Amino acid sequence: MERTFIAVKPDGVQRGLVMEIMSRFEKRGFKLVGIKILNASEELLTKHYEEHVGKPFFPKMVSFMRSGPIVATVWEGKDVVNQGRAMLGKTNPTDSAPGTIRGDFGIDLGRNVCHGSDSVESANREIKLWFKDEELANWESNQTKWLYE
C-alpha cells in the first residue's frame, strides 16, 4: 500500500469543504492515517513548493497558503497517489471534469481548493515535511477484505 498527501487549502477550509473532500476519499476506500489543521509557515511552504521558488507566481501562492488554516491529511491505499490525483481533477479547475473535487468546487486556478501529491516520491517527501512519523497511525481497516483481492 502506498500513501499520499492531500491538503485542503485555505479556500476549501473557509468554504466548509473539508468534510466533503475527506468523505470522498473515505467512500473510495482509502484509509486516513494522518490529519492536522494548521497555519503553515513561510518556511514550510517554501520547502513544500521548492520547485516553484523564483517563479513570478510564487510569492502570491505562498501568501494565499498563509491566509488561513490548512487541513493536512495522509491517506493510504492501493494506487492512492494516482487515484487521489484523478479524484482531485486537473490543477486548473476550469479544465477539471464534473465529478472531480476541483471540477465540482473550483473556479479559479489560484483557488483550486486542495493539493495532492503528484507522484509516490513527492508524496513521501511531502508527508515527511508536514508530519512527524509518530503523528501517522498504523492501523488495519476492517474494510480491507472488502476492498482488495
Automatic annotation (TrEMBL):
| Reported cofactor(s) | Mg(2+)
- Please tell me whether the keyword Kinase is annotated for this protein: yes
Query: In what residue span(s) does the Nucleoside diphosphate kinase-like domain sit?
Result: 1-138
An annotated GO cellular component: mitochondrial intermembrane space
- Catalytic activity, as annotated: a 2'-deoxyribonucleoside 5'-diphosphate + ATP = a 2'-deoxyribonucleoside 5'-triphosphate + ADP
Enzyme class of the recorded protein, top EC level: transferase
Keywords, A to Z, come to:
ATP-binding, Kinase, Nucleotide-binding, Transferase
Task: Supply the EC number(s).
Answer: 2.7.4.6
GO biological process, alphabetically ordered = CTP biosynthetic process; DNA damage response; GTP biosynthetic process; UTP biosynthetic process
Residues where ATP binds: K9, F57, R85, T91, R102, N112
State one Pfam family annotation.
Answer: NDK
SUPFAM superfamilies (UniProt xref): Nucleoside diphosphate kinase, NDK
Q: Which GO terms label this protein's molecular function in UniProt? A: ATP binding; nucleoside diphosphate kinase activity
Q: Which family does it belong to?
A: Belongs to the NDK family.
Q: What is this protein called?
A: Nucleoside diphosphate kinase
